[in-house]
Amino acid sequence: MRSVVLLLLGAHLAYAGTHSLKYVYTAVSRDIDFPEFTAVGLVDDGQFMYFDSNIKKAVPKTEWIRQNEGADYWDSETQSDIGSHQAFKNNIQIAMERFNQSKGVHLFQWMYGCELDDDGTKRGYMQYGYDGDDFLTLDKSTRSWTAANPQATITKGKWDSTGTKAEVDSNYLENTCIEWLNKYVDYGKDTLTRKVSPQVSLLQKDPSSPVTCHATGFYPSGVTITWQKNGQDHHEDVDLGELLPNEDGTFQRSSTINVTPDEWKKNKFSCVVEHQDKTIRKTEKDIITNGEDSISIGIIVGALAAVVLLIVIGAAGYVVYKKKQGFKPVSGSDDGSNSSART
After folding, report:
1. Does this chain's domain 5-191+314-320 share its CATH topology with 199-312?
2. pTM tops 0.85, yes or no
3. In what order do the strands lie in the sheet with 18-28?
4. Among 16, 37, 204, 246, which lies 20 to 30 A Cα-Cα from 28?
5. Does residue 297 carry a pLDDT above 70?
6. pLDDT in tens, 85-129
7. Is residue 220 reached through a cis peptide bond, with omega within 30 degrees of 0 on the bond before it?
8. Dihedral angle sign, alpha carbons of residues 92, 94, 95, 100
9. What's the CATH code, domain 5-191+314-320?
């Protein structure tokens, strides 16, 4: 099986002035100490609901959804997710047969969502994935499905034969999804419209180690971290980390540059962090090296964030494609039926 990484808010990051609603579903073929099926809902990249096949119940993860939706809402979500669980068990078995796999741990995933800009611009996406790669993607412009591999063309043929599924899913993304997004943003406006600037540190284990530019504590999630060399943008030997949620609802992200100590001496490197309308620049003089408490704290925070994500959000629901780190879930079985409709 291909290696996978955590979905740390994926490819569809919110633009400035943008709100987003996203659902992520993941089915696992075998017991690997994670639930067989998970469903996660996020508004503006922060989790607001969660379901898995162990607890068999959809539960709120924010105070704003807990205060504004009652038992009927959660009963409906629970029944929808139970139906999706059964459909996904079927989907993963079909996928294994098509890829000629009889054993091993395999993942079948679905992610979908919508985004709304302040100027009214809307975007929507829906995509399936299998074992860390794209499988099927909805093309809203043509109301059809794009197959990423030969195994997916069978499903594409079934779904495109009538065009019903693509039409229904496109209409959901363009209308119903936006309606619920607006409702959720209104529920949580005090939280979802806040702006918190990042705290930025340059961290280095020792003088010969890579230097990490770590931004944390910011909200909303849209942040840009770049490196400059002698005042010019520098992209070589740079590894941009995933966006991670903090326990308080803010976010963190890091970017690491791997250059030799000699290069640091001969050139002027700087890390530039942009968030909302604020720009923060850190240079060599700001580097915190091993032996100082701050570096230890920074590394621990970064390492624990992934653990917190696993425990609080549900690891299996956040496994994503190795290639694109973005995918979309659907609640239908492989025959094209839609076993559950998301609110």
Report:
1. no
2. no
3. 59-60, 46-52, 37-43, 18-28, 107-117, 122-130, 133-139, 144-147
4. 246
5. no
6. 999 989 999 999 999 988 888 899 999 999 999 889 999 999 999
7. yes
8. positive
9. 3.30.500.10
Residue whose tokens read 């100490």: 33
CA dihedral 230, 231, 234, 237 (to 10 degrees): 40
Contact indicator for 76, 343 with CB cutoff of 8 Å: yes
Q: Which fold has domain 199-312?
A: Immunoglobulin-like (2.60.40)
Q: Tens of pLDDT along 257-276?
A: 999 989 988 999 999 999 98
For the chain, domain boundaries: 5-191+314-320, 199-312
C-beta separation of 107 from 26 below 8 A: yes
- The residues, any chain, with a CB within 8 Å of residue 309's CB and separated by 6 or more, are 6, 8, 244, 245, 315, 318
Contact between 217 and 199 under an 8 Å Cβ cutoff? The reply is yes
